[in-house]
Specification:
Elements lengths: L15 H8 L11 E3 L12 E6 L4 E6 L4 E3 L1 H9 L3 H18 L16 E7 L4 H8 L5 H6 L2 E13 L2 E16 L5 E5 L8 E3 L16 E5 L2 H9 L5 E4 L10 H10 L2 E5 L4 H14 L3 E2 L7 H8 L1 H20 L2
Length: about 325
């Protein structure tokens, strides 16, 4: 007898979350929560870098693989996994879902979505600096004056809270190596936990790092990858350079802000990590803003380069690279 439940002819009949569960072999059912897994495209991915998230703007699942910079909806996922056109990917999903229904109970795929609220900062506690803090930051030649200038403060603990119709959850974190990045008015915008492999950064709110310290009296602006690299750049003591950093290498500054910076400075260059994500991010900045990138061929990032090779060596290597990028900017 013909089993009609296998006759799937329209992609709309395929649950969007099924696509991710099936092709990524997820051990969990997706019912509105966000998940982070190891990259499906990068076999050497040691830490989870692929986010499966519920996009509240469109009310369906999407993915972002920070290891390879791939991302999109379920169809795009199948395109990327099997190197298919969008049409062929859609047909494959329909066919595979039909085959899945032959051996599965379709009612088992019906679920109630519980889209949870995001965690927000509830409270934090500042603490005094210790010798361990000093040991950590001085490895990068970053001292108390720079930390004070950029409003970096050690924390003893913080609590995140999530409140929605499903209840209230709190996460309280204590540790020795926790730092808060603050605005000049005292608002905490990011938490930094350098000893963790995952969740090193917790974004509290969007903020252009270093923007409050800009004088607009220098000729050149460097877009750094993070606040620590921004401070490391200042350690190098380039007399005519200042710097800002976006939330991360994977985010852009607003177009209006970049346009304003271009009006203020003679040249702007990007200096990100020299790994694959950093290289791809610099290419995107070049494509979007016509701002050239600088690849420092030492350690992974600028602050690690200062730690591993010293200030003088980094200046020696970085100076001609910055000059070349400035010339490229001026000639475009």
């Amino acid at each position: 007898m013909l089993r009609t439940k296998s006759l799937i002819v329209d992609l709309k009949e395929v649950p969007r979350e099924w696509v991710f569960e099936h092709y990524l072999n997820l051990p969990m059912k997706l019912s509105g929560q966000d998940e982070v897994i190891k990259s499906a495209f990068n076999p050497v991915d040691k830490n989870p870098s692929m986010s499966i998230y519920f996009d509240r703007k469109v009310n369906f699942y999407r993915y972002k693989d920070f290891s390879t910079d791939k991302g999109g909806d379920g169809i795009q996922l199948v395109q990327d996994l099997f190197t298919l056109s969008r049409g062929d990917a859609s047909r494959k999903i329909i066919e595979d879902y039909g085959q899945w229904l032959l051996v599965s109970d379709p009612e088992a795929n019906i679920r109630e979505y519980k889209v949870r609220a995001k965690y927000k900062l509830k409270i934090f506690t500042k603490r005094s600096w210790t010798t361990k803090d000093r040991y950590y930051w001085t490895k990068f030649k970053i001292g108390s004056k720079l930390l004070e200038k950029y409003h970096v403060v050690p924390l003893s603990n913080y609590t995140l809270i999530r409140e929605d119709e499903y209840g209230t959850d709190e996460l309280s974190i204590d540790g020795l190596m926790i730092y808060g990045f603050f605005r000049a008015d005292g608002r905490l915008y990011k938490i930094y936990q350098p000893m963790l492999k995952e969740n090193k950064f917790i974004k509290i709110e969007s903020f252009i790092q270093g923007s409050e310290q800009l004088t607009y009296e220098k000729d050149y602006l460097v877009i750094s990858s993070a606040l620590k690299d921004l401070m490391a750049l200042e350690v190098l003591n380039f007399s005519n350079v200042e710097s800002v950093a976006p939330d991360s290498e994977n985010s852009f500054l607003p177009d209006s802000i970049v346009a304003a910076y271009k009006h203020k400075y003679k040249a702007i260059v990007v200096l990100f990590d020299n790994d694959d994500p950093g290289k791809k991010a610099m290419i995107k900045w070049k494509e979007r803003f016509n701002i050239p990138g600088v690849m420092l061929p030492l350690s992974k990032d600028l602050s690690d380069s200062v730690k591993d090779h010293g200030v003088e060596k980094v200046r020696e290597v970085l100076t001609p690279l910055l000059r070349k990028a400035v010339d490229e900017y001026k000639n475009t």
